[in-house]
Amino acid sequence: MVTVNALTELPPRPDTAGELVDIPHGWEVRDVEQFLYKEARLADENDYDGWEALWTDDAIYWVPVDGEGDHPRTTVSIIFDNRSRISTRMKQVKTGKRYAQAPPSNLRRIIGNVELLGGRANAAGEIDLEIGANFMVLESRDRGNTLWGGRTTYRLRRIDGQIRLAYKKVVLVDNEQAVPTLGFLI
Amino acid sequence: MTAVVPSASEVEEGGSRYDRLIQPARVHGTLYTDPSIFAEELRKIWHRTWVFVGHESEVPQVNDYVRKQLADQDVVMTRDKEGEVHLLINRCAHRGLQVCDDKSGNSSSFRCPYHGWTYRNTGELLGYPYNKGYGGKKQLPLGMGKVARVASYQGFVFGSLAEEGPSLEEHLGAAKGEIDRLVGLAPAGKVSLDAGWLRHKTRSNWKFLAENETDGYHPQFVHGSIFGVTGSPIGELYSDNSTAVTRSLGDGHSENDLRPEFRGFAEPMRWFGTTPDRVPNYVAAMKEAHGEDADRLMIEGAPHVMIFPNLFIAEIQVFNIQPVGVGECVQYSTAVQFDGGHELNMRMVSQSIGSVGPAGMLLADDTEMYERNQRGVAMADPEWLDVRRGLHRESVDENGFTIGTATDETGMRGFWNHYKTLMTAPDEGQDD
């Protein structure tokens, strides 16, 4: 249990924790892109098990408000999930009675401007690969169509030869405005 | 179409429009869809009664300001050099431009970008360039618009665009005690709403939200998915045999009073889903602040109260509901922060992120209901919405308030009763 009596005891915010170092060795842009496209396809097709299996145990899935957002432990975000809460979110939607996503949205997204940004040390002291990319996703449901766009920062890690997702921060272009229900995996 | 109830045109005969549309056991669908009714609501409710706008903790320092919404009005909540909080209407007295464009900041004055007119953060006009064109300095009896009346209760800031009317304390009435309950759970006796706001665009009439907030009938159905996978005991509080009550607090306010259930368990912090040994510093601070009464406070927990027309306190979350149009509103939501209760504050932020806002595992499903409700009432038949649940088993409690069971529509009926009173009041400046 973390006992916090003062803001100084806060852990650093996850997006800027540590420093960005050189791109770690052993990563090919094409492999990275293929992974990002796969993650996007699983999300678009509401393949909850497949999508959840991409994540590492120390996962962070974060959708802030107000630009890059403030510290997610002391201010509210649209999503700030650790691995356990990702699991809860997936269990809820798989009941078929998560009405915000039952029936599920029809979705397709485009990812572009994929850029290897550098490396960032994780809790185990290894260096994860940090990537930036832009996206647009068209969502269709009875409510109407919604066009979502923004920039995603990913951190990837190889575990037993497989690429896994450790971190995903999604900064929506319109996150300073009121946004409609975001029931799908962004 | 088979008309099984009188059609709108039939009930338009005789009596006031709202007497016909709002009846003890049913309300008419056009209340949610008719643009002329929404326009009248702006005049008679949103521009007249006390509306929740924000919290003093959002402008903690002298000269802090933050842009807020009061229905269709863009307002700037400021704290002047004397520490007083103002609600300025964000409009230049010269050409009507928005004066303040930053969302928040710290400044003793605002300068309109169009022609450089400058205002103090009290709204007073300080100056205008090339003043000879106006006969010199300080010649113009103009200023930024102001919300006519501003008042706070326990730091919650309300505004009324009407010069006259009931005081804030008169408006809050019995709901004051519910705000006091919330504040009583902060060891230092104050709450802050400084954890930021989520903004959830909702394609629904605002009244569906106000009615739903103390509808104890829906949680088991709308939220069964999350209660089931997390093993949450919240659903049971709203079961058919719950001892909780739905109370109409008068003046359109209502609550789901869960205290009978929590008193039955008599476990401090159960309301928060934890135990005293997991939050020892908070429990110690509460005992220091409240002595022997601390256990009672920590057993009974936080209120679940809808304060007419737009402040919803859902235990550890606060919602500010603002209408945009007849079929659209915005839900602003945040986590309550207890002064002197740091051990709970990050937990409340985390729980709120999980529960509320556009992706919240509770509120996204409520919002789906609001939006389907809006689409549903656009259908032609049946024309009415039924609000009779529990009407036959209501009673009056020891304080004279009407109560129903946990799942009864007692709160909705109280809402409509007050709504009708406001909507049938004459427009300002009219005698009828």
Structural account:
The complex is a heterodimer of chains A (186) and B (432). Chain A is built from three helices and six strands, in the order H-H-E-E-H-E-E-E-E. Chain A is of the alpha+beta class and 186 residues long. Chain A has one domain (34-172): Nuclear Transport Factor 2, Chain: A (Roll). A six-stranded mixed beta sheet of chain A has the order 2-1-6-5-4-3. In chain A, strand 3 and strand 4 (127-141) form a beta hairpin. The model of chain A is unreliable at 1-8 (pLDDT under 50). With 432 residues, chain B is α+β, with helices and mostly antiparallel strands. Chain B has two domains: 54-153, Rieske Iron-sulfur Protein; 173-423, Naphthalene 1,2-dioxygenase Alpha Subunit, Chain A, domain 1 (Alpha-Beta Complex). In chain B, 29% of the residues lie in helices and 25% in strands. Chain B has helices spanning 8-11, 17-21, 35-46, 168-172, 175-184, 206-212, 219-222, 224-230, 234-237, 259-265, 280-290, 294-300, 342-355, 363-377, 410-423; strands at residues 22-23, 26-28, 51-55, 64-70, 73-79, 85-89, 104-106, 109-111, 118-120, 125-127, 145-146, 149-153, 156-160, 191-192, 198-202, 245-250, 253-257, 304-307, 311-314, 317-325, 328-335, 337-338, 384-386, 395-396, 402-405. In chain B, the strands form six sheets. Chain B has a nine-stranded antiparallel beta sheet, with helices on both faces. In chain B, strands 7-4-5-6-11 form a five-stranded antiparallel beta sheet, with no helix packed on it. In chain B, a hairpin with a 3-residue loop joins strand 18 and strand 19 (311-314). The relative contact order of chain B is 0.16. At the A-B interface, helix 3 of A face strand 15, helix 8, strand 21, helix 13 and helix 14 of B.
